[in-house]
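If I may wish for something, please sit down with the protein I am sending here and say whether tokens and residues agree:
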Amino acid sequence: WYTLGVTEWRIKYRRQMNESDQSANTKSVDSLLNFETVKYFNNEVHEARRYDVALQAYEHAAVKSRTTLATLNEDGSIYLTPVWYIFEDGRFYAETSPSSRKARNVLARPQASIVVDSRRKQGDERWVSASGTAEIISGERFEKIAAKILARYITKTGLEDPRVGPGFSAGGGVAICLTPGSWGSWDFKSLDDQYFGGVLRKTPEKWFHQVD
């Protein structure tokens, strides 16, 4: 009964997380359109070289970063889901259920993309994306990865609380491992400095609506 209850609780939680974070998908697409603006100004080479800086930024970013994983459906369409993740040894890892669509997609079509969209405050927006091969990690290796993912997002108090920790730590999951083959990045500071002389970042409330 306990295992069934925890499973139902986790499914309910993930459903609520997906519903509350649907806007992340739209914002990720908006970010990609912003990169098209950079291409218009013939500056894509400069921006591409900045991906290493962006990597350092999101490795240390706050949990407020919104991360979206894309996998390929059987009909060729893209399946997008918000995920919790870690970046380790040059690879992205995201925990999921082995029966989830994204896990089944990776097993059938081992390709994936990810966008980490950091919006900690207005005028400091940045994102990085990666696309490449994907595989499913299970067993003992998964357990180690899952523990690191939980430690990144949940406090020590939360993990040790019997009302919270067991629900997140229940076994039986898998991890999607994405090995990047290509990268993309964008950050507001570079755009502001290069095209607007830094004026936008000084008083962002004057120029932009607050992001919900």
Observations:
- The longest strand covers residues 174-187.
